[in-house]
């Protein structure tokens, strides 16, 4: 019996070893395959977009062009969701007012609702009027130029997301259109004054957004945080700030988010904002008073009162972004569809509903699959945010767009939002330095630290700051260069 047990025990030992190896291989396969799940789902969505285009366009000789454009349009929409939407949800997540999952759900719903319910009926085919339509007389050349713009802008936004830099989708499309236009018709085709205004927005957008955010943070610190009775100050000023937020967002949505339903001029939008702001103040004052009963007299209690307004502002920003920016992103796709269907092109074309559906759902997929990386970057890796600071960022985004519309300045919502985060961080650095230099401050109020340590403890991470600014500056030229190359390749393949 002893001689029989030896081989059997060896066999069981060998079997256990083999099973252990198999389980380790399965674990390794799962680990390796996990990063491929997102790209796989995104690829399936792109294929589905091509199928939808084929169903709507049928089996015409030129339908393959529309199918290819729909695939790349879906790719662009996924990249918008991965990159652009982080600017709206990042501050709320960084301030712990929203979980990552809650932010993704709210953003997906609001972005889709904004695109489908209030997205523009008409979009500029030559984005922002930077290319003269007369310079591209051949419809076929125009189609390849728009295809090149779509592919290059999507590739650039994808690259920026991989690097971890929030960039402007609109500027990427502008660069793509410009590069394809130059490749197709030369430098004279570009409207250089319009390009100059867009280049100016690289500076105007973040500086204006940062200044407005810093101004509101300074106001909150002076009127609430540094008061002896913080709760009494919060009861007085939080309803005012909620009323301001409601009024600003009402005006913002009236200007930017309701184009399909009704067109509203600036004075009317401001009047709507004043009325709704007063109503929000009347509603929030008793609610804030009731919520603040029994709260301790400290900053943590005040932060709680800003939580709900911050969540609402993030949702409203996402709705307005869906209504305003998705149309710009699918503009080249809409232009290709129109040119293929009617054999010509116009300065403005209508957006078919199936194109807007691709844009809306593509953003949701991109946000769900790839959005957390940029949301964390904007919300917590640039500077530390709390509900009050994040509230200032959200409010500055809406106010800056209204100011820019009044002044006729081209601005980027991405640059404004991220500029607001920078503005809050740099204001805190300046404020801390000022308090440290104030001779009357005691060690109990401000912690004394060595100058070398103070330089190391910057409240805004300079590496992220330089990466993001560099990405902003090179977005248009990089997208333009890629677009010109894609255009030449398409022309060489087709001809």
Nutshell version of this structure?
The chain crosses the membrane at residues 36-57, 64-82, 141-161, 198-217, 237-255, 261-283, 304-323, 351-370, 390-407, 413-430, 465-490. The chain is an all-alpha fold.
Architecture blueprint of SSEs:
Elements: H1 2-57, H2 63-83, H3 86-94, H4 100-118, E1 122-124, H5 139-163, H6 169-185, H7 192-225, H8 230-256, H9 266-291, H10 299-305, H11 307-329, H12 331-342, E2 348-350, H13 353-381, H14 387-407, H15 413-437, H16 451-456, H17 462-494
Subcellular location: Membrane
Protein name: Phosphate transporter
Pfam families: PHO4
Helix content: over 70%
Question: How many independent structural domains?
Answer: 1
Radius of gyration: 26 Å
Largest sheet: 2 strands, antiparallel
Into which percentage range does the β-strand content fall? under 5%
Helical segment tally?
17
Record keyword descriptors for this entry.
membrane; 495 residues; 1% strand; mainly alpha; transport; phosphate transmembrane transporter activity; globular; Phos_transporter; 2 strands
């Amino acid at each position: 019996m002893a001689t029989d047990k030896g081989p059997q025990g060896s066999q069981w030992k060998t079997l256990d070893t083999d099973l252990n190896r198999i389980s380790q291989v399965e674990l390794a396969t799962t680990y390796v395959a996990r990063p491929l799940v997102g790209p796989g789902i995104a690829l399936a969505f792109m294929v589905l977009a091509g199928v939808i285009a084929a169903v709507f366009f049928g089996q015409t000789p030129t339908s393959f062009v529309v199918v290819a454009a729909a695939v790349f349009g879906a790719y662009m929409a996924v990249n918008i969701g991965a990159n652009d939407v982080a600017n709206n949800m990042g501050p709320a997540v960084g301030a712990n007012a929203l979980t990552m999952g809650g932010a993704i759900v709210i953003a997906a719903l609001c972005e889709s609702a904004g695109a489908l319910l209030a997205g523009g009926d008409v979009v500029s085919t030559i984005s922002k009027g930077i290319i003269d339509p007369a310079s591209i007389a051949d419809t076929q050349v125009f189609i390849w130029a728009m295809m090149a713009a779509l592919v290059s802008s999507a590739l650039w936004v994808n690259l920026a997301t991989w690097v971890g830099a929030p960039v402007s989708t609109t500027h990427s499309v502008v660069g793509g259109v410009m590069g394809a236009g130059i490749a197709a018709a030369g430098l004279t085709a570009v409207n250089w004054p319009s390009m100059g205004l867009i280049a100016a927005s690289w500076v105007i957008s973040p500086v204006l957004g940062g200044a407005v955010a810093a101004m509101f943070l300074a106001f909150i610190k002076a009127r609430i945080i540094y008061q002896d009775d913080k709760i009494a100050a919060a009861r007085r000023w939080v309803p005012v700030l909620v009323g301001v937020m409601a009024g600003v967002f009402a005006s913002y949505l009236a200007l930017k988010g309701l184009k399909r339903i009704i067109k509203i001029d600036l004075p009317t939008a401001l009047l709507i904002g004043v009325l709704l702001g007063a109503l929000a103040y009347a509603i929030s004052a008793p609610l804030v008073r009731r919520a603040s009963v029994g709260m301790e007299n400290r900053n943590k209690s005040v932060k709680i009162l800003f939580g709900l307004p911050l969540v609402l502002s993030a949702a409203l920003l996402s709705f307005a972004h869906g209504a305003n920016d998705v149309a710009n992103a699918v503009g080249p796709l809409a232009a290709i569809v129109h040119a293929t269907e009617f054999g010509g092109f116009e300065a403005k074309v209508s957006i078919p509903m199936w194109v807007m559906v691709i844009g809306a759902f593509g953003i949701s997929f991109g946000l769900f699959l790839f959005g957390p990386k940029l949301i964390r970057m904007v919300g917590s890796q640039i500077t530390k945010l709390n509900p009050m600071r994040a509230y200032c960022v959200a409010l500055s985004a809406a106010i800056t767009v209204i100011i820019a519309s009044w002044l006729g300045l081209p601005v980027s919502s991405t640059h404004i939002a991220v500029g607001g985060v920078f503005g809050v961080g740099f204001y805190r650095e300046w404020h801390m330095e000022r308090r440290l230099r104030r001779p009357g401050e005691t060690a109990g109020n401000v912690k004394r630290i060595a100058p070398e340590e103070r330089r190391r403890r910057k409240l805004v991470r300079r590496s992220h700051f330089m990466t993001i600014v560099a990405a902003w500056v090179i977005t248009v030229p990089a997208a333009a260069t890629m677009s010109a190359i894609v255009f030449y390749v398409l022309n060489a393949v087709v001809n």
